[in-house]
């Protein structure tokens, strides 16, 4: 009888002690933190991978690519790799046709949250293996609360699982914020178990960046809870990981990360890349420069600014997203503002982005060609350029002052005056046609620095060779887009 009482007492105690329900264990002893994706040690506005600086660029036709299987996934990743792409988004989402859920279905439409559907996790491992083989960086979002916009058939609906009594959650706010703010212990226990299982897989890979939530409005305490949870778990396995949190408004994302730099190591400003929450044209670029200045003003200094979603498709099909031309211009403005990444958003689900369509591939190819000729990792956004006259504005410039400068001409024939600032006798200018994806003419420009009263310093007048024969069907307006690269002789 006494032994029975002791046994009952032990069981009660164990039930009160918080513990991880999944064993987190990084199995791959060959992984090295020094080789993993991390801010570039010589210029932390950018990333490095396997010790080399890397500008992340990409596009994909879905946000939860891990749900794709076999040749469908392999062919898509091969297409991205073939154009120089190295960056995809992956939400742990399950709302698309063909998706599988994480909990195990024990009978038709009924789930056990304490058992896993191994196919869900097998798909994730296959996806991570295939991206790692190709050197494609994965920005992984833990929670996508749009999955629970409707609970009807989802395992988290208490009517569809054997674990939660009716009323445990009523909606997505209950599932997400309720676990912390309303002390819903059953929900939090499941969430922790899910993240533990996720980390038991992902910590075996060195090419993953973590994002807490997609377009979050749940609140700082909830986001910080999971950021700390991830950091603690990685630290227990001697892994260094990098985390951000994407809020609905891009400026709030920056403020939140800057306020909690002990938890986050990069910012995600994707919402700047759409009409609804962001902006268009030159203001889009100015926002990036402003946030860059704010980050740089902090004592901790620079960290990468990522754009995992660049919105825009067609001509007016989705006014919240923006147009196809705007998407392409946003992609390039992100790069010229010194961002660490740019990826075209998925085309489906309401037509939001270019994905990995032909025009997206053309742009990614051009970005790879540009990076082969211009060292962005030693350059900075440069204010020493000015659009002349009534030309389409092209005040987008990167510079390693005294060595090389790059100017982005988004559309048509424009003239930009570039002040090289240091004295030089002549420069060469070579042109990359972003519409055709070809290098065009190279020219030499002589500079005259004679002392003339009331005349300012000499500048390089750079006139794009836009022919004006392009058109909206090519993703542009009145002419081809160009990048001019200016090099000191």
CATH domain class name of the largest domain: Alpha Beta
Tally of individual domains: 2
pLDDT below 50 for ≥5 consecutive residues: which ranges?
1-21, 468-477
Shape verdict: elongated
Helix content: 25-40%
Structural class: alpha/beta
CATH topology of the largest domain: TIM Barrel
CATH superfamily of the largest domain: Glycosidases
Tell me about the biggest sheet?
Answer: 6 strands, antiparallel
Strand content: 15-25%
Q: What is the average per-residue confidence, as pLDDT, rounded to a whole number?
A: 90
Strand order of the largest sheet: 14-16-17-22-19-20
The number of helical runs is 11
Radius of gyration: 25 Å
Tell how many strands the DSSP assignment holds: 22
Describe the structure.
- The structure is a single chain.
- This protein is of the alpha/beta class and 489 residues long.
- The protein folds into two domains: 10-376, TIM Barrel, CATH 3.20.20.80; 382-488.
- Helix content is 29%, strand content 20%.
- It has eleven helices and 22 strands.
- The protein has helices spanning 2-16, 70-82, 118-133, 172-175, 178-181, 185-202, 220-236, 250-259, 281-297, 324-336, 358-373, and strands spanning 38-39, 47-49, 52-54, 56-59, 87-91, 103-107, 110-116, 137-143, 208-213, 243-244, 267-268, 305-306, 341-344, 380-381, 385-387, 397-400, 404-409, 415-418, 426-433, 438-446, 460-463, 482-488.
- It has a six-stranded antiparallel beta sheet. A four-stranded parallel beta sheet has the order 5-8-9-10, with helices on one face.
- α9 (281-297) packs parallel to α10 (324-336).
- The longest helix has 18 residues, at 185-202.
